[in-house]
Model the fold of this input.
Amino acid sequence: MLPGNTSDTVRQYFSYLIRHPAFLGALIGVLAAFSQALLISAGGPEAYGFCVACHTRDLVNGMTNIIAGTSLALAPISGNSVLPVMSVGGVLIGAYLSARMYREHKVKRGGLKDYAVYFLGGFIVLQLAMIFGGCPYRAALRTGYGDITALVFIITMAAGVIVGTLLMLRRAQEEEA
Amino acid sequence: MATGILPTEVAVYAVPLVTILLGILIGFLAQRSGYCSIGGFRDYVLFRHTRLLSGYLTLIVASFFGYLLFWFLAPAAMEHFFWALTRDPMSPVPGAPGGLVPVAYLLISVITGFFVGFICVLLGGCPIRQTVMASEGNYKAAFFFLGMCIGSIIFAAYVSGWFTIFMRSIGFGG
Done:
């Protein structure tokens, strides 16, 4: 095979790989374990490498504590460090860079009612996630760490998704009829 | 107290730096692949598509092997791996409101899990997908993210305390 073809093939495989969710899943799993091995001296909890809900809580409450001098609760790892965990900020930046780079950045507006529904949805999902102690991602990490309650969470989450999907399906069929 | 590879004095500076780099990498790839945990189950139910679902299931398996790997490499950092064997199997890894009886945590997992799945599928994505869509310029997802931000202050200031009082009052206090 010619060298040019080889590099094309490698590039194709690479492009396929970074577009596949399973690759990202494997990456998050290993990197979360790595970041715990690296950073756990700063404070707990365990299996805390990546979590959208908890890290949003830490980022918002940590920055509010620093700026406004309040003492809102956050995880020890963020409370002990000079700045709280920044992964959600990183996700926003990374996704923005990717969307810009591949020309997928598109402004989509909705009605005032949509905004209210989504705001309320985010609010409620965060309360539920905080009561459980993690979003779907930390639930997966906790399951990998050996936490049975997190496995129960994932199973009932799948049940909730199925019920929600069937509800949407029925509503769509009623609109058609 | 678990000790990681980095000593405490270095780790307190490394935390924001390492997590922001991790976040940028995850955000970039999540935008590329349309990664979503809730969407995985939804696509499977609707179309029998396994692409997104494979991402979430891989995460569970990979995190187990990742923790296993670093348990060999840095055992002091993985103090309670494997949780179900080193601790009471029904107790959760800390992060949730503490001081409740084990059965309460099981009940919490069932109820919160169901409603997180239900609400997120109606709004079209799990928290990470909403965050990525907000970065792509979707205003509705941005309001979801804003709801999470305001929600975290309200949770820490009020809901957390109310919840503990409520659980104790119905007899789940440990």
Observations:
- The mean pLDDT of chain B is 86.
